[in-house]
């Protein structure tokens, strides 16, 4: 499979990339690791006229601290985030989620900014960001804004990111030593979650239980009111609207959400 | 057309390519390096695995222009002076192949894995090859080959240290 023709420009800086997006609008797409965009282009589901390559911009990569937040540059690759000592100490749930994306080859290329912008509801990092109550930094021609994970994900492959904006960084609250749980059910190695659960600090996020990563609010409220993990988990699918596909129907996904939430809460790591 | 400059198996290359040219097609069609195969063509099977700056990647999901300025290694570039690379030798010795189609990808994924983790447990070896499918299902011998290669490399390193 070969993508449709496009022009290619390696951006010289984040500012240069934003200028190009402002000029070309929706005809341009940002390329970093390319592990969501290139498969879509090969299937001709995406046919951008211009690719702006930000994959080589050092200014957008790396993990650092900013006060009580851990900041991850947009082009940080999953493998580097998973291996980052800083991330493993300050936001172990996020580092673990990065280690669960795809397979080693995919983790060597794919980036956190790319995965979040792609917004696949079954993906690891969007779910982890929602569980952690994190946010994304969006930079455009008119300035920079910080958008919470709950607001960033709008729907199936839809986000708050405007066509002329660049997601430059991801911010999550530092959570050293706080117990967390992570469960993901797949049928094949390196596959997307049929259902996934990330839990930390009384917050529970679900993957593939709707058009975007969602909170299990009924289960969270039960936990806050003193319910046991098993009691809270029995409410994990309440208020969700999972889709159906050849892997699972709705009722099976609801069942998985309850079982995986119980496991995530009972086998919390820290 | 876009100008690319990269190193492939130790040799510097300079070419004009269409931006949409995939790295796997550049290697196979432009350079005639046919070890890496196109299997699923959807980032799943790992038959097209090569090393980019020493890290395993699936060349069906990398543009040739993205490899510009970087080093690519294919199975053709592993052996030195006619000697099989320790990973290749281990695959031969442990019969880590059946039809052979997945083998170049398995070998390159193993070289990448051992660079990151020189002493994998069996479980780590299995997880480390998660991105490579063998449709003959010959996984047991492949894992034996990975572990044998790790032992062989450890012995080589030790004997080098003793000599030094």
Write a structural description.
The complex is a heterodimer of chains A (270) and B (164). Chain A is α+β, with helices and mostly antiparallel strands and 270 residues long. In chain A, helix 5 runs antiparallel to helix 8. Chain A has helices spanning 14-24, 37-42, 78-83, 85-90, 92-99, 104-109, 112-118, 124-132, 149-152, 217-224, 229-233, 250-266; strands spanning 7-10, 28-31, 50-53, 63-66, 69-73, 135-140, 143-148, 153-155, 158-159, 166-173, 180-185, 195-200, 203-207, 214-215. Chain A has three domains: 7-53, Uridine Diphospho-n-acetylenolpyruvylglucosamine Reductase, domain 2, CATH 3.30.43; 58-173, Uridine Diphospho-n-acetylenolpyruvylglucosamine Reductase, domain 3 (2-Layer Sandwich), CATH 3.30.465.10; 180-266, CO dehydrogenase flavoprotein, C-terminal domain (Enolase-like, domain 1, 2-Layer Sandwich), CATH 3.30.390. Chain B contains five helices and five strands. In chain B, helix 2 packs across helix 5 (139-163). Chain B starts with a strand and ends with a helix. Chain B has helices spanning 23-30, 86-93, 103-116, 122-128, 139-163; strands at residues 2-8, 11-17, 49-52, 55-58, 71-73. The longest helix of chain B has 25 residues, at 139-163. The A-B interface holds A 1-8, 10, 31, 34-35, 38-39, 41-42, 51, 53, 55-56, 79, 102-106, 108-109, 189-190 and B 2, 18-20, 22, 25, 41-44, 46, 49, 52, 55-58, 61-63, 65-66, 69, 109, 112-113, 128, 130-132.
């Amino acid at each position: 499979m070969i993508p449709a023709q496009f022009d290619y420009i390696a951006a010289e800086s984040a500012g240069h990339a934003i200028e190009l997006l402002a000029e070309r609008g929706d005809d341009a797409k940002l390329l970093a690791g390319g592990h969501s965009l290139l498969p879509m282009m090969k299937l001709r589901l995406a046919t951008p006229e211009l690719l702006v390559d930000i994959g080589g911009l050092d200014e957008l990569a790396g993990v650092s601290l900013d006060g009580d937040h851990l900041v991850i540059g947009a082009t940080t690759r999953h493998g580097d985030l998973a291996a980052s000592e800083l991330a493993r100490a300050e936001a172990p749930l996020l580092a673990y989620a990065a280690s669960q994306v795809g397979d080693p080859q995919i983790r060597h290329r794919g980036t956190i900014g790319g995965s979040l912008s792609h917004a696949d509801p079954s993906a690891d990092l969007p779910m982890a960001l929602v569980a952690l109550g994190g946010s994304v930094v969006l930079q455009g021609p008119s300035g920079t804004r910080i958008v919470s994970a709950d607001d960033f994900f709008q729907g199936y492959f839809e986000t708050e990111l405007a066509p002329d904006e660049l997601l430059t960084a991801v911010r999550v609250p530092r959570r050293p030593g706080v117990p967390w749980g992570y469960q993901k059910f797949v049928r094949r190695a390196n596959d997307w979650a049929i259902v996934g659960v990330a839990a930390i600090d009384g917050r529970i996020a679900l993957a593939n239980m709707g058009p975007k990563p969602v909170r299990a609010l009924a289960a969270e409220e039960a936990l806050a009111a003193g319910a046991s993990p098993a009691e809270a988990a029995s409410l994990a699918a309440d208020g969700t609207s999972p889709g159906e596909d050849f892997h699972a129907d709705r009722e099976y996904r609801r069942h998985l959400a309850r079982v995986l939430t119980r496991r995530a809460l009972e086998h919390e790591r820290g | 057309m876009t100008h690319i400059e990269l190193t492939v198996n130790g040799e510097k290359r300079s070419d004009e390519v269409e931006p949409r040219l995939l790295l796997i097609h550049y290697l196979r069609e432009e350079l005639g390096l046919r070890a890496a195969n196109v299997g699923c063509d959807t980032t799943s099977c790992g038959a097209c695995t090569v090393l980019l700056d020493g890290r395993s990647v699936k060349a069906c999901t990398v543009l040739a222009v993205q490899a510009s300025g970087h080093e690519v290694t294919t199975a053709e570039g592993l052996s030195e002076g006619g000697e099989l690379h320790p990973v290749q030798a281990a695959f031969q010795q442990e019969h880590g192949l059946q039809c052979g189609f997945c083998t170049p990808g398995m070998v390159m994924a193993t070289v990448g894995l051992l660079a990151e983790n020189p002493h994998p447990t069996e479980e780590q070896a299995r997880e480390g090859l998660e991105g490579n499918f063998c449709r003959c299902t010959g996984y047991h011998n492949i894992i034996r080959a990975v572990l044998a290669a790790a032992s062989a490399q450890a012995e080589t390193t030790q004997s080098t240290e003793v000599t030094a």
